[in-house]
């Protein structure tokens, strides 16, 4: 990263910070998302449109998690020896994960909004087929923005060490002015502002619907406490992970394009950026919490499975008792018939 002529670079702390945080995210994110994928594909028998969105979110998280060891190696050594293609792919997958996560979380929020606020009118919309179409559209949108961004950026070399190559950072002012600034405008609008508004609006309208007496007493199907908890968790994770990074990204772009000048502003932006980035990356670890609180299907499926096992055991024992009883009755009738037959023949 280039600094102003009279400004000193003050973000050297980011390398040990990234190394530690990304290592933790890799371990926790890999375990939790692999477990979630196992539940979705192997344990969960009944799937709906909500689980379709969440399965795609798991795929997005895992694609990013698999690139984290390369990033950790780079931040420890401050050199990228893996070639230009892997650098560009890692950058692309970072944007794919972040903005894919925001869009898939928004899909889940909109789906819950339709299910609760418009349960009857949304029946034809809330189908697994439509959910798959929406997921395909999200992937096309995200990849069309992230792949060109990653592959248009060239890895740069350090000024004092031509053998060391940068990745994920130190893009020139020309790169920021010609390409990255346009990317920031696009992703901030499509990938952040619109999803944020949709999440907030859908959550508010769901809460207003839950306050209506006829909604609360609708056959006991809607659990107000559970839905409220789901909305709080969903919004908290969305806001905590994505708002700091995306707000700071705007100021960071203004500083890097020399639109916003001043050593104090640059110092603040450079200090906040690594911290906000670490928080944003941690969404891989928090998404499984959304799966648990959001998907009643998962919890109900597990309950149904355990209840089915208990019911099977009860029915089996009852059937066994019934079969034993019927066999005993049949044997008694047979013996009795033979006795009467012998008596009549005597």
TrEMBL record:
<feature type="transmembrane region" description="Helical">
    <location>
        <begin position="130"/>
        <end position="151"/>
    </location>
</feature>
<feature type="transmembrane region" description="Helical">
    <location>
        <begin position="183"/>
        <end position="207"/>
    </location>
</feature>
<dbReference type="InterPro" id="IPR017452">
    <property type="entry name" value="GPCR_Rhodpsn_7TM"/>
</dbReference>
<keyword id="KW-1064">Adaptive immunity</keyword>
<keyword id="KW-1133">Transmembrane helix</keyword>
<dbReference type="GO" id="GO:0005886">
    <property type="term" value="C:plasma membrane"/>
</dbReference>
<feature type="transmembrane region" description="Helical">
    <location>
        <begin position="20"/>
        <end position="41"/>
    </location>
</feature>
<feature type="transmembrane region" description="Helical">
    <location>
        <begin position="96"/>
        <end position="118"/>
    </location>
</feature>
<keyword id="KW-1015">Disulfide bond</keyword>
<dbReference type="GO" id="GO:0070915">
    <property type="term" value="F:lysophosphatidic acid receptor activity"/>
</dbReference>
<dbReference type="GO" id="GO:0001525">
    <property type="term" value="P:angiogenesis"/>
</dbReference>
<dbReference type="GO" id="GO:0007188">
    <property type="term" value="P:adenylate cyclase-modulating G protein-coupled receptor signaling pathway"/>
</dbReference>
<keyword id="KW-0391">Immunity</keyword>
<keyword id="KW-0675">Receptor</keyword>
<keyword id="KW-0812">Transmembrane</keyword>
<keyword id="KW-0297">G-protein coupled receptor</keyword>
<dbReference type="GO" id="GO:0007200">
    <property type="term" value="P:phospholipase C-activating G protein-coupled receptor signaling pathway"/>
</dbReference>
<dbReference type="GO" id="GO:0035025">
    <property type="term" value="P:positive regulation of Rho protein signal transduction"/>
</dbReference>
<keyword id="KW-0807">Transducer</keyword>
<feature type="transmembrane region" description="Helical">
    <location>
        <begin position="227"/>
        <end position="252"/>
    </location>
</feature>
<comment type="similarity">
    <text>Belongs to the G-protein coupled receptor 1 family.</text>
</comment>
<keyword id="KW-0472">Membrane</keyword>
<keyword id="KW-0325">Glycoprotein</keyword>
<protein>
    <submittedName>
        <fullName>Lysophosphatidic acid receptor 6a</fullName>
    </submittedName>
</protein>
<dbReference type="Pfam" id="PF00001">
    <property type="entry name" value="7tm_1"/>
</dbReference>
<dbReference type="GO" id="GO:0002250">
    <property type="term" value="P:adaptive immune response"/>
</dbReference>
<feature type="transmembrane region" description="Helical">
    <location>
        <begin position="272"/>
        <end position="294"/>
    </location>
</feature>
<feature type="transmembrane region" description="Helical">
    <location>
        <begin position="53"/>
        <end position="76"/>
    </location>
</feature>
<dbReference type="InterPro" id="IPR000276">
    <property type="entry name" value="GPCR_Rhodpsn"/>
</dbReference>
<feature type="domain" description="G-protein coupled receptors family 1 profile">
    <location>
        <begin position="32"/>
        <end position="291"/>
    </location>
</feature>
């Amino acid at each position: 990263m280039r600094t102003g002529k009279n400004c000193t670079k003050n973000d050297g702390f980011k390398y040990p910070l990234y190394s530690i945080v990304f290592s933790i995210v890799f371990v926790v994110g890999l375990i939790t998302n692999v477990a979630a994928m196992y539940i979705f594909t192997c344990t969960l028998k009944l799937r709906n449109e909500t689980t379709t969105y969440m399965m795609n979110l798991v795929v997005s998280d895992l694609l990013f998690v698999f690139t984290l060891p390369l990033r950790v190696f780079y931040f420890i050594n401050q050199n990228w020896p893996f070639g230009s293609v892997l650098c560009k792919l890692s950058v692309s997958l970072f944007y794919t994960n972040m903005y894919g996560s925001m869009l898939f979380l928004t899909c889940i929020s909109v789906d819950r909004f339709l299910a609760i606020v418009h349960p009857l009118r949304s029946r034809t919309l809330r189908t697994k087929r439509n959910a798959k179409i929406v997921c395909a559209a999200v992937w096309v949108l995200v990849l069309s923005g992230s792949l060109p961004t990653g592959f248009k950026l060239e890895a740069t070399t350090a000024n004092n060490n031509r053998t060391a190559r940068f990745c994920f950072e130190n893009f020139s002012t020309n790169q920021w002015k010609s390409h990255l600034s346009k990317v920031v405008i696009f992703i901030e609008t499509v990938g952040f502002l619109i999803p944020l508004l949709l999440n907030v609006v859908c959550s508010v309208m769901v809460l207003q619907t839950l306050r209506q007496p006829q909604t609360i007493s609708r056959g006991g199907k809607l659990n107000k406490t559970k839905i409220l908890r789901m909305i709080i968790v969903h919004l908290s994770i969305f806001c905590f992970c994505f708002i700091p990074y995306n707000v700071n990204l705007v100021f960071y772009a203004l500083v890097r394009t020399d639109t916003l000048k001043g050593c104090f502003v640059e110092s603040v932006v450079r200090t906040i950026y690594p911290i906000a980035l670490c928080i944003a990356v941690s969404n891989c670890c928090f998404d499984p919490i959304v799966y648990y609180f959001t998907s009643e299907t998962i919890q109900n499926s597990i309950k149904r499975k355990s209840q089915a096992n208990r019911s099977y055991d009860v029915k089996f024992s009852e059937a066994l008792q019934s079969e034993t009883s019927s066999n005993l009755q049949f044997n008694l009738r047979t013996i009795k018939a033979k006795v009467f037959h012998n008596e009549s023949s005597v």
